[in-house]
Write a structure and sequence with these properties.
712 residues; alpha+beta; Elongation Factor Tu (Ef-tu), domain 3; Rossmann fold; 4 domains; 8-stranded antiparallel sheet; globular
């Protein structure tokens, strides 16, 4: 009889309780390998389930004696039946083994069904040798310590076993069990596995470096890795032996530092601290970093240390310390997994856990802005120019979602000028492309076009904005006018990248309106994409064609883009519509789409005017605002009285003599977002940009409490 339950404490610690009663058959006695003697059994030698290094870390982490007493009961000297069944049915296991120098390596072992079996609770038999065991000269001699971890990627179940090699002959290995225990499912990403190959390809590996682009890409995009560690001194097996474990996080949680070392956050877990205890005891570790989609992996051995300082873990919710690894030997291996797998679901708590790139970016920001330089300028039309911006500090570039905009700060003759411009290409990790139309009375646009040149500095904030593609599979209609083409180019770029990564294709109708060929931006770029992808349908309307323009060659119609033109070109059924352009252009199309019965949830737009395209909604509720309120600007140490005549928090701050950041004044750009320290606010109009948690948009917020404090 087997009864199993999962338990998770309120503080995030989790553990597994298993009650097992198995009556072995007469046949099982005949097939059992000779059991370990009392002298051989490490748990009989040592009064503690945990060795000295583990107990040191447990004490440092303030693990209570009561918890340790209960934790010791979760560790068994042999495998319960469900662990035996679990190991036998997995397509692969991960082993921690030592090389002749005593360095741990973490490697998978896999084979056709039946490659792993457990003839008795104290034995695990493998009919295949671990990956690269010969190349890495892994110790499989009788008595050698070995750690085993198995993870079912389809359901997050995880079990571990530590033992010693009983004997090895050819590819057959028998492992005698010293310790068996389960782990909770935290930080395991579920994956959909392709059918396992009956005869997996033999792994091939070569020595490599973290500075190779392919290696760096795999490491920095990993959301999972496996780690082998060892205790110090003469290994006795069990706890005082070799261990194998699993780590998971957001892609980017395993970071490469400038000096070639690695770092990863250590999240709250079952409080056994097997891995950290081994690092405290010895420090030598091995990592196996897989790419589940290609079957390749990075395998390395090195030395690890634990950083207990609180500052480095702040960006990783749930993490309690950081582990730093200095690699000593790195291998890039292919065909290391018997199956390929696609991500099905991340561990739900990962959204706020941060990445090392985010940590580096936060350190580079000064008052919310970073210095970028103009790498190049490219003229797109008679009035439109693209500016390619790269980090002047040499740091990483903050990723954006196609369609978002970039707040920038320019230094002009009269001080700082704040604007926001759409990023007109998808994320590439190298640069941002801002495409700006020169407006006759536009202070910032004239400054960019007329004075700024290659090498000049522009300060940029974090990308923002909610005008991004939906996640449905419906066809897309992009309707742009003039420079409103910029977010559509970024979205199209993102769709092409997603298709290359295996996303399903979506039909796209790219419909652009402009005066003529002289004012048309991105013509050659668009036509090149059309030639490569049959799902992209390009339609162009010229309202004032030039003599050299040819209907049917340079453009498809000679008229302003309206519903009559669209009705001839596009069947209105089951589409997601995206609008961006001049106000009159957008209002006419929005009204026409709504009149044709298109639901407002299927119409998305980027609009920086003072009004809204949406019809007012009847909420059925009335918000009661105070007649007076005290607004505290914490950073400036200024207080101001607010009344209904004071306007928004932004206007209240300006009336108090402050000059907070802002741009659109209508909740469209996010530039005015500040932290709300206390009190509550109400938005007089619904902003199109959602500020970060604990932040408010001052340009459209008013006090809802009699006392409000904001970080200005």
């Amino acid at each position: 009889m087997v009864r199993q339950g999962k338990n998770q404490r309120k503080d995030g610690e989790c553990f597994e309780l298993t009650f097992n009663a198995v009556w072995p058959s007469a046949d099982s006695f005949r097939t059992m390998p000779k059991p370990l003697t009392e002298r051989e059994h490490p748990m009989a030698q040592d009064d503690h389930v945990f060795h000295a290094g583990e107990r040191t870390v447990q004490a440092r982490a303030e693990v209570s004696d009561d918890w340790l007493e209960r934790a010791a009961s979760f560790v068994r000297p042999e495998m319960p039946q469900q662990h035996r069944d679990f190991f036998e049915n997995l397509p692969m296991l991960f082993l921690g083994l030592l090389d002749p120098a005593g360095r741990p390596w973490c490697v998978p072992v896999f084979g056709p069904p039946g490659y792993a079996s457990s003839p008795s609770p104290s034995t695990l038999e493998l009919q295949r040798a671990p990956t690269l065991s010969d190349e890495l000269r892994l110790d499989l001699t009788p008595g050698a310590s070995v750690g085993v971890v198995g993870v079912d990627l389809s359901n997050r179940r995880r079990n571990r076993m530590n033992g010693r090699v009983r004997y090895a002959r050819g590819d057959a290995i028998t492992i005698a069990v010293d310790q068996s225990f389960g782990n909770c499912p935290q930080y395991i990403q579920t994956r959909s596995l392709a059918p396992a190959r009956d005869e997996p390809s033999a792994a091939a590996g070569r020595r490599s470096s973290l500075y190779e682009p392919a290696v760096r890409r795999l490491v920095e995009s990993a959301d999972t890795f496996f780690i082998a560690s060892r205790a110090a001194g003469s290994l006795k097996g069990g706890s005082a032996g070799v261990d194998a474990s699993h780590r998971g996080g957001r892609p980017g949680f395993l970071g490469i530092n400038e000096d070639g070392s690695l770092s990863f956050p250590d999240f709250s877990g079952n409080r056994f601290f097997n891995t950290l205890g081994n690092i405290e005891s010895d420090g030598r570790i091995g990592l196996f970093v897989p790419d589940f989609e290609t079957g390749e992996a990075i395998i390395l051995t090195g030395r690890a240390t634990i950083d207990w300082s609180p500052g480095r873990v702040e960006a990783f919710a749930g993490a309690e310390r950081v582990v730093d690894v200095v690699p000593e030997e790195i291998w890039h291996a292919t065909a290391t997994l018997p199956v390929t797998a696609t991500l099905a679901e991340q561990w739900p708590a990962l959204d706020d856990t941060g990445t090392w790139d985010e940590v580096r970016l936060a350190a580079l920001n000064t008052d919310g802005y970073r210095r970028f330089q103009i790498a190049s300028k490219r003229r797109e039309s008679d009035t439109i120019t693209s500016f390619y911006l790269t980090p002047a500090d040499g740091g990483p570039i903050e990723p954006h979602v196609p369609g978002q905009f970039l707040p920038i700060r320019l230094q002009g003759n009269d001080g700082s000028i704040l604007r926001s411009y759409t990023i007109s290409q998808g994320p590439n990790g190298r640069d941002y492309r801002l495409t700006v139309k020169r407006e006759e009375y536009g202070l910032a646009s004239r400054l960019l076009h007329d004075r700024f040149k290659d090498g000049d500095i522009i300060e940029v904030a974090s990308p923002a904005g909610d005008f991004v593609l939906d996640d449905s599979t419906q066809p897309i209609v992009m309707l742009s006018g003039g420079v409103g083409i910029t977010p559509m180019m970024a979205m199209l770029d993102g769709l092409v990248a997603a298709l290359r990564a295996g996303a399903p294709r979506r039909e796209v109708y790219f419909i652009h309106a402009t005066q003529n060929s002289a004012s048309r931006a991105f013509r050659s770029e668009l036509e090149a994409i059309v030639r490569q992808h049959d799902w992209l349908h390009l339609f162009t309307a010229y309202s004032a064609p030039e003599p050299g323009d040819r209907l049917g060659q340079t453009h498809d119609t000679e008229a302003r883009l309206g519903m009559g033109v669209l009705a001839k070109f596009l069947p209105f059924d089951g589409y997601q519509f995206y609008l961006c352009g001049p106000e009159g252009f957008m209002r006419a199309l929005y009204t026409g789409l709504r009149d044709m019965g298109i639901d407002r949830s299927h119409i998305h737009y980027e609009f920086f005017g003072a009004g809204e395209l949406d019809e007012p909604e009847e909420t059925g509720s009335v918000v009661e605002l105070p007649t007076r309120a005290t607004v505290t600007f914490a950073r400036s140490e200024i207080q101001a009285e607010w009344t209904a005549q004071s306007g928004t928090l932004l206007e209240t701050a300006e009336a108090a003599g402050l000059r907070p950041f802002h741009n659109c004044r209508s909740g469209k750009c996010g530039t005015c977002a500040v932290r709300l320290l206390s009190g509550a606010v109400h938005y007089t109009r619904k902003p199109l940009v959602s500020p970060a948690d604990d932040h408010v948009l001052t340009c459209c917020a008013v006090p809802m409490d009699e006392r409000v404090e904001i970080d200005i």
